[in-house]
Amino acid sequence: MTIRCGWALASLAIAPLAAGCLGGGSAGSSQATLTRAEFTSRAEQICTSYTKRISSLPVPSDLAGLAQQGERAVGLEQQELKELRALNPPPEQAGQVNDMLDAIEQAIADGHDLIDAARVGQRKAVNDAVTSLRGHLETANELAKELDLGTCAITA
């Protein structure tokens, strides 16, 4: 896998990290429980906003650039995930939303591994992180589709 291909996949994955993204309310959240339509609308607005921001990042041409752009993408993903977690989905969706968010968090961790490997020039470790990232995004995407959050799903 080329660096460009690995980064493109990583940023697409992180974008839904960014896109595989849905938010589930936490037990300590002070917001009211949303209806299914309200939750879907708000989650898709968040996902669309962050997907655009992440998609606008330049595609790196080397490992140093991958580390730099990866940091930006992961930072945006973390912000997106925080916003999504602030939403309180309806009870019938809460389990799936939490499962999706867990997969996104794992993908963010993979993004950190990818960045660390790129920073020290370890191509194999970059490729391994991309493979793991793909798996976690696949899980998040499947759940996003089941939740009718198409905007929050990406194709990798």
Task: Summarize the helices and strands and which ones pair or pack.
Elements: H1 3-17, H2 36-55, H3 63-85, H4 91-119, H5 123-146
Which terms would index this structure?
156 residues; mainly alpha; Four Helix Bundle (Hemerythrin (Met), subunit A); 71% helix; elongated; disordered N terminus
Give the tally of structural domains: 1
CATH architecture: Up-down Bundle
CATH class: Mainly Alpha
How far apart are the first and last residues' alpha carbons, in Å? 14 Å
Strand content: under 5%
Portion in helices:
over 70%
CATH topology: Four Helix Bundle (Hemerythrin (Met), subunit A)
Helix/strand-derived category reads mainly alpha
Q: In angstroms, what is the radius of gyration? A: 15 Å
Task: Give the tally of β-strands.
Answer: 0
Question: Could you say which overall geometry the principal axes of the C-alpha atoms support?
Answer: elongated
Please tell me the overall pLDDT: 83
What is the count of DSSP helices, taking H or I runs of 4+ residues?
5
- Helices and strands, in order, run as HHHHH
**For the report, how would you describe the main beta sheet?**
none
